[in-house]
Structure formats: C-alpha cells, structure tokens
Design a protein that fits this description.
about 270 residues, alpha/beta, TIM Barrel, 11 helices, binds 2-phosphoglycolic acid
Length: about 270
C-alpha cells in the first residue's frame, strides 16, 4: 500500500518570499535525491510514498502552480461549509475556488479548526459534501483531547467523529463506491499536536485498526482505508511509526516547515513501504 506524507503548513510561512524559499528547498532536495538515486521519492514510476503540502489559502494558487509538474500534491487546509461555489460568506473560500486554484485535496476537521472555529458534525458533513461535489479529495482529521485520552475515551470519541463519514454515506450513497479513493483519515491526538508528546506506536496501531474496521463497516469498498498518524512526527521518530503496518503515513505540522525534516519523514515511509 502506498504511503502518504502530508505537510500541514498551518498559518506559515508569513511571507510569499518564505513560502517560495521553502518550496525551492523542497524541490531542490527532491531533485537531488532523484538524481543521486538515494531515494525513490523523485521517481514517478516507482514511488511508494506520495507527498502533499497544505499551504494557507492565500498561498494556494502560487504553490499549486509551482508544484504542478512535481511529485508533490497541493491541498487546502479547509473549505467553506456554506456553499461549494460562491456567495455572501465573508472570509470563506469555497471548494470550487480551492479547486480552481489548482489544489486537488483539502484537509477537513483539523483539531485547530474544531477548537478555534467550533467545527463539529453538521458543518463537517457539509464541508465533505462540498469538497466531493467539486472533485476535491479529503484528508479528514480526527483525534481525542488529553482529558479524553486520560479517561480512556479515545475510541468513543473517534467513533463519534467518524459518524460524519457514516452520515455522508447515508445521505449520498452514490459516493460509497469511490470513498476509498476520495478520502484519507488522519488520526491526530490533540494532545500530541505541537507538543513533542506522542502515543506509543502500539497505541496508534490499535487505534488505526479500529478506524479501518469502523470505516469498512460504512462502505464495503473502503475495506482498507488509508489512515495516517499526526502529532509531533519528526525526523527522529518517523521510522518507528513507518515500521507499523497499520500506519499508512503521517500528517506533519512543525517538521514540514523545513525541507530536510519533511523529506526525512517521507524517506522513512518510502523505505518502509518499498
Ligand atoms: P505537529 O502538527 O506535527 O506540529 O504536531 C501536526 C498537525 O497539526 O497536523
């Protein structure tokens, strides 16, 4: 199964200059690795790890244009829940606008959106509907808080968050057949994001097995859903996550802002999946 390593740039970098510098570094390193044949990352035919980056909305068009002929996919971090197209929704960016900018994927349900923008079930069902209507594919983020983890509620919380997918399948059964192609789940314990704290690989593995089983119950076509781990993944710990068969890749925040650490993580998954 192909691995995925996705960089969530969040509200970074601050300037177009710095965005382009990060892209320069990323593309130069990928080219150098392909030339030196030290990694398969640069070779389209034999690649085992797909790379993706999610810049902020303001940089989306520029980044997607620069990545067009590269092995890196461009994703948005969010889309409007109110309309897939246009409308009087100040500050929002629609799925259509995102797709028109050249992005082919969007993150949805990231814990920072849930926390700072009160995103929850109904709004996420709408966002997924709009994304799929505009042929955007979705990285759907789920995960428990520290208190929920301490109370051993992880699976319960995840089941509630995954019910968004179940409801979507009930509302739009025509999507069931293509669910596995349109969707990736990213399991990100909130307490591990940006903290340097990580669950054990065994914990992540068990949770991923649960997620795969649950989603397979919604759509028989999704019997091996791609499930990524996110939360303080870095160049040092990537190998241990990559070695587990239940962990299909990583959603990376802080370490994706440096080409070197982002590609070291990608390389760990590339090696483990080749
Ligand atoms: P982190 O962020 O890698 O900085 O912990 C991950 C994320 O928020 O997706």
């Amino acid at each position: 199964m192909q691995a995925w390593v996705i960089g969530n740039w969040k509200q970074n970098p601050a300037t177009r200059h710095d965005v382009n510098a990060l892209l320069d570094n990323l593309l130069t390193e990928i080219d150098a690795k392909a030339q030196a044949n030290t990694s398969l990352l640069g070779s389209h035919s034999d690649r085992h790890c797909q790379l993706m980056v999610a810049p902020s909305c303001i940089h989306l068009a520029e980044v997607s244009t620069r990545l067009k002929h590269s092995p890196v996919i461009c994703a948005a971090q969010d889309i409007s829940e109110h309309s897939a197209n246009t409308g009087a929704y100040t500050g929002d960016c629609s799925a259509k606008q995102v797709a028109d900018s050249g992005a082919t994927w969007t993150l949805l349900g990231h814990s920072e959106r849930r926390q700072y923008h009160s995103e929850a079930h109904d709004s996420l069902v709408k966002k997924l509907t709009h994304a799929f209507a505009q042929n955007l594919r979705v990285v759907f983020c789920i995960g428990e808080t520290q208190a929920q983890y301490d109370n051993k509620q992880t699976l319960e919380v995840i089941d509630t968050q995954l019910s968004v997918i179940k409801d979507l399948m009930t509302q739009q059964p025509e999507l069931v057949a293509s669910l596995a192609n349109r969707l990736i789940i990213a399991y990100e314990p909130v307490w591990a994001i940006g903290t340097g704290k990580v669950p054990t690989v065994e914990e992540v593995s068990k949770t991923h097995a649960h997620i795969k089983q649950t989603v397979a119950g919604f759509a028989s076509t999704a019997d091996n859903m791609t499930v990524l781990y996110g939360g303080s993944v870095n160049a040092e710990n990537a190998d241990s996550f990559a070695a587990d068969a239940m962990i299909d890749g990583a959603l990376v925040g802080g370490a994706s802002l440096k080409a070197e650490s982002f590609l070291a993580i990608a390389n760990a998954f590339e090696q483990a999946h080749s």
